[in-house]
Automatic annotation (TrEMBL):
GO terms for biological process, alphabetical: protein import into nucleus
Species whose genome carries this gene: Triparma verrucosa
Localization terms from the record: Cytoplasm
GO cellular component: cytoplasm
GO molecular function: small GTPase binding
InterPro entries: ARM-like, ARM-type_fold, IMB1_TNPO1-like_TPR, Importin-beta_N, Importin_beta
Main location: cytoplasm
Name by which UniProt lists this protein: Importin N-terminal domain-containing protein
Keyword check for Phosphoprotein: no
Amino acid sequence: MAADMQNRLMGCLSPDENVRRESEAWLKSAEQSDLGGFMYALTQALSTEGSDLTVRQQSGLYLKNILYAKDTNTLEQNRQRWKALSPDAKTHIKQLILTVLNSPEQVARHTASQAIAEMGAIDLPGNQWPELLPNLLNNVTGSTPDTTKVSTLECLGYTCERLDYTDLDQTTTNNILTAIVDGMRAERSDPIRLAACTALRNSLLFCRGNMENKPERDMIMQVICEATQCTDGKVRAVAYECIVQIGEHYYDKLDDYMQVLAQLTFNSIKTEEEQVATQAIEFWSTLCDEEMDILEEIEECREAGEQPSRACKGYVTAALAQLSPLLLEALTKQDEDADLDDNIWNAAMASSTCLTLVASTVGDGVVDAVMPFVLQNIKGENWRFREASTMAFCCILEGPGTGKIGNFVNQSIPVLIQALKDPHSMVKDTTAWTLGRICELHASCVPPNLFNDLVTGLKSVLINESPRVSAQACFAIHNLAMQITVDDSTTTNLLSQYLPALLQDLLQVTERPDWDEANLRPSAYEAINMLIQHAAADMAPILEQLLPVIMDRLAKSFAMSVLTNEEKDAKAGLQGLLCGILQVMCQNLSIEAVQKQADNVMQILLEVFKTKNAAAHEEALMAAGALADKVELGFERYMDAFHPVVMHGLKSHEAYQVCTVAVGVVGDLTRALGKNVARFCNEIVQSLLEILQNSTLNRAVKPHVLSCFGDIALALEGGFEPYLQVTLMMLLQASQTRAPDDDEDLIDFVNTLREGILEAYTGIIQGLDDGGKVQLILPYCEAIMSFLETVTHDPNKDDEVISGAIGVLGDLSDSLGTQVPGLTSKKFVDQLLMEGASTGVDKIVELAQTYRTRIDNHKRGAGM
């Protein structure tokens, strides 16, 4: 197989598509028929000196990817396949691949280190590769070439990154750490120190046991701090990356080291080359993130009457006087070409991010530290200082209270409006961004007498300025419109006199020759969306005139050229944006205005569904949902054509965003059509059940599906009976999902899942009650009450879950009363209602009080 492997790997790189496909199919077939032999052949290809380097690299990456996957389920499947190989097959592969760490070719060594790490991550915890670590440690500490030491240190770092700190015993971990620290010694060559620093960065979580031990932690911190003084800038940068990791994962251990770390980082921010300075700045950004999280936790604990688990040391506040001047100085080191490459990250950008985080962490205190610099330089002769001072002001808009920053915002408006005419594009760019942030955060501070100047100024840079400046102006207009109140008691608002001209200019912006730069076209359409949403009643004629314009643009988009991938993406993006506008217009125009154009809107949307464009389908589905919501029963005439579209969306399990939107549209249709949706429900319910049963589908879809069953039940009322049993079985199964206390992502998901379950129960109970068949729910009431009890006792439930649980409890009370087992006797019922009453959320408090009274009435009626 080895000779064929070389040829097939080379074939995968062929410009001939047929050759590529044939080679890829051969590789897939070989992998499936004999995994052990296939992996050994790949290892042979990787280890063969003198062969094509690209093929060697490809073979190593193929090996790694056989074992690794981002998806947790796929990763576990891959690991089980490896474990199922015979010990002899694995031994041959492992023995051969270890020799590649000695290869004279860096590409082969580097790729081998990644593949070895994946094998080690599987076999080391079960002691299935006992010779690996001694081999690697000997490479680092023995008399091997420097190139071998470097690749071995890489391998150790990758391996530690793939392991949990509990996977190996502490002695083995100590040996790994000793080898890495040995590579960081000052007498080692710079390439070895760099590899060792990188390995340490990747292993800091793995070495948690060592970091908990003060003498060992002192040693680790010492070698890292020494590495920040290395003559090689790459080593210094990675050493600071280690410090950043320590700030994130070991904040509570920093006390003994903060004085030294502050001195090192301050000096590096001021004097170091950019790659090092940015990492020194990142350390303070990380501390801001940590302290904000801790302060938030402390506040949550205070409200709950609990003791917080962590203390905020206030490092950022203590460093403010020394840190802020360094960040402000770094802001003046702009790179005028930085916006040409999204991958560029420099000290000025890092400083603006850090200063923003400092403002959010420190609050009012940052104003006195920054505003003298702003006031001194915002009108200065040097453009760098004008831009830096404007950016600094923008950075501190969020964090300080309006009482502290408000007067400065008020005074800044005329200065910033004038700066939109600055001769330097970066100043104009930052100025427009700052005005956008002011409109977002402090619109109340804009002087009424300057509102006209503000709108006029932003409008003036839409057409002829650079794409970045125009996009920032769109952002500002979007945020300004968002702050305008739409009051049903009046027919006009502040936007009305500007809206026609703004819409006209923004539509023109979307067709600028440079629309594809700086996210200009999407920014303009988002601004249009927000103007439509906040338009007053007197603008209805203008919006009605806009609707056919948008449809005409969408109709013309079908004729756009798609000869290249760029043209294909441009067409897809434009159609998605235009469908988004149609959705917003259907939501905000009057019923009469939408009904006039409903046939035309639906016809154009059906044309969109004929294209192979998932992003546009998503937006078009939402537009169709909005149309259904507006015309209600009038939408039934489109259902024969639209039903297949919805079914296709529900079956788009790979494009889970489209699937999610399709589920939401089913809810729209049930509310619009009521019982008239019944003839489509067999297929819809079957597809919803398939989604729930699909273990590989993104889990974010499933809460929406569960909630959708409630929408269907509300629409069908008693007609939901055929689907009742299978639906309730699914709900009961979903109710078993739990989340560990230390997994925030899973806690959030479980809360969202439970919201969907509770919404489904509410819809089912109310629908059956309306249809006179609520008795059908009685056999399931005990299980539903058990679920409500589980929810009540969960300390991680959020307010939405509390509200939903009280709602279901109330629905059971209203429809079945004392027939519900435990309604008047279970202790959790009182606990749940008490928690609802203490949330401080008016709607939940009112709900809890209402059902408290009703359940108390049931108790009295039962003689309790």
